[in-house]
Give the backbone structure.
Amino acid sequence: MENSSMENREELKKELLNNLQELEVLEQLENLIKDNKIEFNVNNKVYRVRLPNWDETETANKEKIRKFQEMLEAKDDKGKPQYRFKEYWIKLLKLQGEEYDIDKITSKINMINQQMDNLKLKLAQTKNEDGITNLKNEILQMKYDVATLSMKKTDLMKFSLEDQLLYHCNSYITYLVLEEKLEDKWNRVFDNYDNFKNSQNVELLQKALFFMDCLIYRDQE
Amino acid sequence: MPKYRETALRKLARGYKWQLLYSRAKELSNIRLFKNEDNFTKLQLHFLNLLENISSLYMDLAMKEPYIDESVIIDEIRSEAYLFYKNKQRDNKKHEPIRESDSITDIPSISFTSRNN
């Protein structure tokens, strides 16, 4: 009797802890969506990132053009272009085998998405529990497969000029909008981009880049 | 086998508080969902999309549409399937012919009735 009441108490404690953790996550999420600025703490200091204003967007655009030109002109030790477009990488990867063929990976993703659409139509119209569970499991597996293939594609293409340029632009915008709260005023953290890049405060940079990704919407998404 | 788990953002959007705020914000101009009135972030746009989708699910439930019940709304995958099915139905209706046209003139048929009838 005593054992079972102890077990019940333990279970209730676990459930309460889970609920509290869940509430904390939801509260943190609300903080992320309530404004177009996100505040966060690093080493007891308050920082924030926000969407760039018009001036900052113009500055970031000029930097993008400058960096693009720099990447086009960059040469390696053998005098060959240091950065290559996606098209070049796709052709090169094709020679490595079917597993690295970007076009084939894309076709596979499209095929799985089409199959998923058919299953979704079936699932929407299914009422029996077993049918629902089986279809859900199939769809879940397909979503996992699509995510895995998409991540593989992203990984293989990350050294392309386009992706490297995008990474640089995101990082530059983060430098422009990263601010620290000092006596109720918000001030830019870094005077210039080199100081931002060379900062030893890895936690600050990682959090800033992560939260910037929550803020900026890109057309290709 | 990957395990199903509803995303936290969807759970937030499905909650009573945000559904109520969303429906009231549509009716009353002095209720704002966010601190900013423009320049919405990626997360805010995604959240708005979730609010809209879930709100439309509840409306369909209230109107007793087929294939929808509470268990569908709670389940992210089933909701996605239902919304996809609904969009398909809507697309299929768009391609249906509206009405037959007159065989000689291509003008849609009109029936004239006299006042005496």
About this structure: The first helix of chain A runs from residue 2 to 33. The helical segments of chain A are 2-33, 54-73, 86-94, 102-125, 129-157, 161-177, 193-197, 202-215. Chain A touches chain B through 35 residues (CB under 8 Å).
